[in-house]
């Protein structure tokens, strides 16, 4: 179960995005944790909302208590943070157009 909000401490590990997008991503994570128990559902909620709010590109979101990652992403579109014992990784990759060819 991942619904441990309450007074959970938030720790931002790596942030490479404008503050407005950082705040939006964090807000989406908090809302998702209040709405869903399953990490997959939390990640899907964040991803869908980020996709709606940004122009071009494709977001990847990972949520969990134990995970690792190696990836390439756009500059200025990467965040990794924890809310309590739950980690959040979100990053944006190239535009949709590259996948149509």
Automatic annotation (TrEMBL):
Record GO biological process: microtubule-based process
Keyword annotations: Cytoplasm, Cytoskeleton, Dynein, Membrane, Microtubule, Motor protein, Transmembrane, Transmembrane helix
Cellular compartment(s): Cytoplasm, Cytoskeleton
Keyword Cell cycle among record annotations: no
Chief location of this protein within or outside the cell: cytoplasm
Secretion signal span: none
A GO MF term: dynein intermediate chain binding
Membership in a protein family: Belongs to the dynein light chain family.
Record-linked PANTHER family: DYNEIN LIGHT CHAIN
Protein name per Swiss-Prot or TrEMBL: Dynein light chain
Organism for this UniProt entry: Panstrongylus lignarius
